[in-house]
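Possible regression after last week's pipeline update?

I re-ran a chain I had predicted before the update to compare outputs. Posting the input and the new output here so someone can diff against the archived version. Not blocking, just want to make sure nothing changed silently.
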Amino acid sequence: MSSQNSCNIYTSKLCETKRKSKSDKIISKEQNEIHITFCEGDSLETFENDLNELRGNSFLYFFKKRFSTAFISIISVLVIMFALISASIYEDLLKKVIFSLPFDWQINDTVSLSFVLIFFFGLMMMPSLLDAEGNEFKNNLSSWFNKDIRKLKRLKLGFSIYDKKTIINLYNFDLEDEEHWINRLLLKTLINRFYTINLFIRNDQIKSIEKKLEAFDVLNIEVIKTKKQTNKGDISFILSSKEQKLFSLMQLSSTKLLNTQNKSVFISLELFEYCGRNFFEDQKGSKEQLISGFQNFINRSFDDFNFISQEKSQQIYFTKQSNFKDLEDEEKRLSYYLRNHIEDCISYFDNPISLLILYYYVKDIVLDEKRTISILEKFIETIDKKQQYELIEDYWFNIAGEMFDSSSLESFEKTNSSFYRKLSIEALNKLVFLFERNGYYQQAVLICKYLYEINPNKYSVTICSLHERMGQFEKAYDSLPLKLNLGKNSKPSDTEIRYFQRKAWIVVSQRKDELKEEGLKALENLKELIFSHNDDNEPLWLWHYYNIKANYAEWNEDYDLSIENFKKCLAIPTLGAFEYGATFVNMAISYRFKYLTSSTQNFDIIDKSISIGKLGVFLKQSVGDRDEMPIVLHNQALNILSKMLNSNEDEKLYKEVVTITNEAIFILDKTNSIKRLGMLLIENYIAKCFLQEDTSAISIRLKNHLSFLDENETKQLNSLYKEFIKVDKIARLDYLDN
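New output (post-update):
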């Protein structure tokens, strides 16, 4: 080719294409420029039709196209006919020479010999004629037998009316290999015809395109790397089918799932690559496969397509040029895949955006809530590690809500399922810091109050600091203790703690008066161990301590002190439904005793007992605690009956007593236990008497069970029976009267 021809390779300018959709024409013309934009699936036939429409009706073009085809056909027929005639004449002359010598030489023989000599010399000269440079006959003849040559000739003819100085702009043709018609025919035609070719390609395809151009003997090749352009419209139509799949996967790996309005849609490249290797069905060996894989597509999305951008480290987001698809089915499929690989994802992801997206994928389909908690804990950890503090304000409160006030007993039922009650102490400590960085000082104070019992010294100082940050200097000063309780010992072992726990608990649970002093001494030893060091205490240690202390206060009939210590049990963080449920059950008992021993009938107290007792039952049921469930249900029945003893008769409450006592008796029968069976039978009997139901079976069973009661249960059963007999609310039982 001529050295004056030049090819300019442009990158990051695919958005300048004049084609706006796949249905638009492949080729268009503006002034002295021709624009050709290729899309995957475009055929040569479609291109030729678009080229013909662009040229319009031209008699010269039509004549050249039709005449060349007819001329080749006519010449070919004449050559074949001439060959057949010459062969026949040669055969006749040869027979005469061999079989008829001597013979008379006539004018016909001279003509025949002339034809034979012409045919002979023509065959000898044919290779030279065909090999001659620029021989049109050879090309015309070859095109008649070779489809590619014929197509190439049509393309040359199609562009022949355009000036050679016309600038050709080629977009997106780097999708295909060398064997594709756009490289094999079109590119070759354009390079041989026009002086200036501008190639708009992807950044990573420069070397590949340079090799193609060098194969066409292009000498002047210039690579022009431009800055990333802002798209003027949607260019997703130029993507290959593989790129389309990868773009869909990139959308699936973004916060688009959260449906957040007026917020940037962030992308997790960690999730994108993880799913690409594990979830994405890569068609290996397919023509649709990307040359350079996932990382190249990410680079193309940045530089060539302008789909994604980046402002901060690890915070990559979709630009406004990205058009999202409806991927509801794919989201559902991916969510179940991620649910089965949560632990693997947690260990792999190091970007908080990745963990945020993972959480929203699996939050509604994970049965074990501990697995979602582990995602949130890693989310908090990575925000702290990567210092992306603004994610707390943007996303955290939508997930967990605001921190509750742990000092408010009334808020417990509403906050029972709060994530703050399930996060580890380490995660909560990080949240205090992150809330402070975001200016949520009051939220940080509430977490510190929640964690206070774990280490009063540590959290009182933190609370002081937070009040100071808010400008509340008096509160800051008052929040500091008068003196630090500095422990001199190291943190005790779990065995030491459990020894004194068990000893103090056995005494108080049995109400052994002769061992009471020994039990109190064990409780004091337990206190010294727990508060004799400066490290964080284990939540379970503190819960057992305050629970035992509350039971001793109840034994001493100091029900206010008992309730106060039970509230401290509820203020201890990171415990489970088992511990909190037991605390509510025991606190309800203290409220019941407070009501029964009060000089005035305060129904608010017994209503409180019934309300928190019901919450205790719910929490115990939530963990499937069959061991203590009959006792829990017995105490709740007793709470309700204590109210009904001196109040207006409420049929609903009696029905509730029948229901819960029936359930408790059923559990005892199934487990072959008789613990508190006597109390449950009398409670069931009292409720059925009021409802005027048949009590014969329950009465007989109670009579037969009396011999199995211990002294304490017998005393409690008779006391309850006599209270209801006294107010004339039940029928008498002879075996109890005697």
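Follow-up from reviewer: compared with the archived run. The first helix runs from residue 44 to 55. Marking as no regression found.
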